[in-house]
Amino acid sequence: DEVASQIAAGEVVERPASVVKELFENALDAGAGQIDIHIEQSGKRLIEISDDGAGIPAEELSLAVMRHATSKMRSADDLFAIQTLGFRGEALASVASVSRFSLTSRPASQAVGAVLKVDGGKGAKMEPVGAPVGTVVRVEDLFYNVPARLKFLKQDATERNAINALVTRYAIAYPSTRVRLTHDSQLVLQTSGKGDRREVLANLYGVELAKNMLEVTFQEDGMCLSGFISPVAVTRSNRKEITFFVNGRWVQDAALSRALLNGYQNLIMVGRYPLAMLFLDVPPEEVDVNVHPAKAEVRFRSSDKVFGTVQRAVRRGLLAYSP
Ligand code: ADP
Ligand code: MG
Predict the structure, then answer these.
(1) What integer is the mean pLDDT of 135-139?
(2) Domain range holding 79?
(3) Are residues 183 and 226 in the same domain?
(4) Most buried among 13, 147, 160, 244, using CB within 10 Å?
């Protein structure tokens, strides 16, 4: 029923930034070369994400907004070796139940596109529409029908920063995708899609800090850690400046951060943290991303091994640096 579906929605969609994360991940899963994000009023009024990915056939559009409908899992075994960012089939259903929602899409095999409109999870209406190949998701008036959620949204600036932090990190993680972000028609971020992570780093840390960051690449036991770390703990920094992507997904994991800090040893001063933007790739069967719908946590099959690798990678990266 309606209430149950709104509660379920709350698991996945907590604020505008979580909507952006889900839609952005869908665009990546669709193989997008370009992702445009258009935000109005910090996402409270409008979140619109367009991509040039594979698109959704008209006959599958209404399935896409049904709960637990995913095109990405073919068997139960897939759950243990997830290759895509999405796999639950919950995001679109959740977002559509708490907003005025529209999904426009066209795969290359179709001459025209189709648009599906859903209002607060109700009255799904579909019609043909001219559209370029790819997908546009429009989320208007988020939580308009869930006043309790609406009340808990933070000030505009806070929600806006959360969106920017998220999109910037994903833009660094996926440097071969052109990413464009505007707030109320103001351009906030634009990447070239040329595959250079350092180019986008400056957007996160500022030119000066980004220039000084050390590049890390380390491989061990089928795991690979790459990315950027600051040579020392940076004053203005805090734990929020430590970012880990595991198999292409942004995760927030205290143990990974601790492994990083261990790698710094005596370079850490009390109350200061380093900057880090690190990408850990492990064989998919070594990591369980199935912990929480928002998928911010991970569980490793052999966490000691993973944390050891992170620590050694960081130590090695710092040693290679001679000021
Ligand atoms: P999940 O990503 O877990 O499969 P979602 O609710 O996020 O679930 O999306 C449901 C389905 O809609 C996806 O499995 C996919 O088939 C389709 N879909 C969603 N967004 C896009 C997109 N931007 N491009 C192509 N297909 C999409
Ligand atoms: Mg998804």
Answers:
(1) 98
(2) 2-190
(3) no
(4) 13
How much distance in Å is there from the Cα of 35 to the middle of ligand 1?
Answer: 15
| Other Cβ atoms within 10 Å of 238 Cβ, number | 11
Q: Give the mean pLDDT of 258-269.
A: 83
Which ligand has its closest atom nearest to the C-alpha of 95?
A: 1
278, 315: one domain? yes
Residue 186 has what pLDDT?
Answer: 97
Kindly report the pTM of this predicted structure: 0.91
For the chain, first and last CA: distance in Å?
62
- The single-letter code of the amino acid at 1 is D
Structure tokens at 283: 């064989």
Q: 285: CA distance to ligand 1 center in Å?
A: 23
- Whether 225 lines ligand 1, by a CB cut-off of 6 Å, is no
Q: Count how many domains the chain has.
A: 2
CA 93–ligand 2 middle distance (angstroms):
10
